[in-house]
Amino acid sequence: MLDNSSEANSQKAAKPQPPAHERGKKGLAQALLLITIVYVAMNLRAALISVGPVIDSIGTSLGLSATALGVLITLPVLCFGVFAPFAPRLLKLQSAERLILFSLLLLTGGIVLRSNLGSPGLFVGTFLLGLAISMVMVLLPGIIKRHFPVNAGLMMGLYSTALAAGAATAAGVTVPMEQWLGDWRLSLGFWAIPAVLAALVWVPQVRGEPAFSARRPVAVPRLRSNWLAWQVTLFMGTQGAIAYCIFGWLPLILIDRGLSSLDAGFVLATLMSIQLTTSITGPWIATRGRDQRPAIFVFMALVGAGFLGLVYGSTSAVYIWAGVFGLGFGGMFAVAMALLVLRSPNPQVAAAISGMSQGVGYMIAAVAPLIVGILHEYTGNWDAVAAFMMLLILGAMWSGLLAGRARFIE
């Protein structure tokens, strides 16, 4: 046994290594790909989050009701749930690199259309950018796994952080750009510039990349009758619903409480920036104990306390409440993503629960902002909305505590 191992090690040591200049070129190519992926990921939230800070201006300018604004906020999230499951099937026709390039161009077109042609352009453009983002979100992790197999976990962390950083940037600068440029249309249309730049920097990944067929599909278990799988899915969906309600409606809530649109955008940007801390450390914190239930309870408690403070607390402490919510929100999302792996005994189950959580979860997340718009329009205040949001938070805590137990999906 020792002799065989020694011989194998000797053969491995004797295996010729690529020349130093070739290793250097490969390292440079990976570094450039890393920068490109991070930049592309930052564009996947900016176009969405930029709507929230100027939602009041959009409604006033186009004469849209609260329900119509709820549809506007819901539409891209609905696209995620409907179209994301179909993205892997397109790999039979084109490579992931080409599909991402096409999606980035579609994202640019959707942003431009959203700022033109009035209400029809607003909704059609939002639909197109939602479709484009759903494609890229599904395909980029596969690119990461293929090019960074050893550091895939670290890369996914950078990918998630880039998503959050793009969201925080959009939340903070959209209103100042509206005031500087004089129109919400120009402020939203601005995000077409970084989107088209993302398409341009992605072009080198497409050169020489032929279309290829997907590998033979791997048999995965059917999870629709598995209760633990539904617990994970419900936690993913309810936390997503909370997130998209906050992204879309928090600025208008704060404006109705007396804040300026500029200050409301800064509050959202603060929330999004603070959540970066626990989005990075959340999975590490959650895996320190016997299971994830204590971490989930703490994070959801912070979300609940922060939300109530934002809606009913003193506006002089609004940034404190935003910080409390942000700490809980970042950990909530990070742990929900980690549960897809922690509850799976093998890659096949992980793939199955990921698909189930994404399809069903985004559908749940898509409906919630629309309900918020309807409740606000028919009650004229935010009390019913606050009650609905607390039900979502309690539902997320309940499903999260069940999903956080140390067991595997069978």
UniProtKB/TrEMBL annotation:
**What is the source species?**
Pusillimonas noertemannii
**MF (Gene Ontology):** transmembrane transporter activity
Q: Record's superkingdom?
A: Bacteria
**Keywords assigned by UniProt, alphabetized:** Membrane, Transmembrane, Transmembrane helix
Taxonomic lineage is:
Bacteria, Pseudomonadati, Pseudomonadota, Betaproteobacteria, Burkholderiales
Stretches that traverse the bilayer: 31-55, 67-87, 99-117, 123-144, 156-176, 188-206, 227-252, 264-286, 295-312, 318-342, 349-372, 384-404
Q: Which PANTHER family match?
A: 2-NITROIMIDAZOLE TRANSPORTER, PTHR23523
Domain Major facilitator superfamily (MFS) profile positions: 31-407
SUPFAM superfamilies in UniProt:
MFS general substrate transporter
InterPro entries given in the database record: MFS (IPR011701), MFS_Cyanate_Porter (IPR052524), MFS_dom (IPR020846), MFS_trans_sf (IPR036259)
State the protein's name.
Answer: CP family cyanate transporter-like MFS transporter
